[in-house]
């Protein structure tokens, strides 16, 4: 008598649970938020070339990319009703879109706002989001290899972000500080 192991279903075809999709969206949100802030800080500190998209003389902010991506993800979810890996990819794209859009939430309310005033808010948001991920993620004892890879990627991104935030804050303060203070005063009611 042989004991056969029951075949487990292909993970690609298994419907993900809502909490699995939420964790995937949260991971994408964190990674995109950190990447977006890192790029902005490096550009403002003049550590990398200006990568902003300009149409004529208008800077196209990344919240616009997020809005278009949100519309695309919503249409995909509504008209295709994906399952399995397609739903997982949609959750990841949703997290990216939310980060791009909400990273510039201040612009929804005040179009002249600067990035400089947001450095401490950015750091707090990243810390709060990491804590949320830890609180709602699986127990470390039940981590699978893809959980470990995601945690390592997030940890590396956080370390890079912390270093860039520290370095850029010094350079931005020297380069842009006086001009941004003038902008803040001029744009205040």
Structure commentary:
The protein is globular, with a radius of gyration of 20 Å. It has one domain (about 20-175). The chain has about 190 residues and is mainly alpha-helical. Helix 1 runs parallel beside helix 3 (about 85-100), helix 1 (about 20-45) runs antiparallel to helix 5 and helix 2 runs antiparallel to helix 3 (about 85-100). Strand 1 and strand 2 form a beta hairpin. The protein is built from 6 helices and 2 strands; from the N terminus they run H-E-E-H-H-H-H-H. It starts with 17 loop residues before the first helix and ends with a helix. Helices cover about 70% and strands about 5% of the residues. A two-stranded antiparallel ribbon has the order 1-2. It has helices at about 20-45, 60-80, 85-100, 105-110, 120-135, 145-185; strands at about 55, 60.
């Amino acid at each position: 008598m042989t004991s056969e192991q029951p075949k487990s279903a292909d993970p690609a075809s298994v419907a993900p649970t809502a909490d699995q999709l939420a964790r995937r969206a949260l991971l994408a949100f964190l990674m995109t938020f950190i990447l977006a802030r890192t790029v902005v800080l490096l550009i403002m500190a003049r550590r990398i070339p200006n990568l902003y998209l300009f149409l004529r003389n208008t800077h196209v902010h990344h919240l616009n990319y997020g809005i278009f991506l949100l519309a695309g993800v919503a249409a995909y979810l509504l008209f295709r009703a994906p399952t399995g890996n397609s739903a997982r990819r949609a959750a990841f794209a949703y997290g990216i879109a939310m980060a791009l859009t909400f990273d510039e939430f201040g612009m929804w309310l005040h179009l002249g706002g600067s990035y400089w005033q947001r450095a401490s808010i950015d750091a707090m948001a990243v810390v709060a989001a990491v804590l949320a991920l830890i609180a709602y993620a699986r127990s470390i004892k039940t981590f699978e290899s893809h959980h470990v890879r995601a945690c390592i990627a997030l940890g590396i991104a956080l370390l890079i972000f912390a270093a860039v935030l520290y370095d850029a804050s010094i350079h931005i303060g020297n380069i842009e500080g006086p001009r941004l203070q003038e902008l803040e005063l001029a744009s205040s009611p």
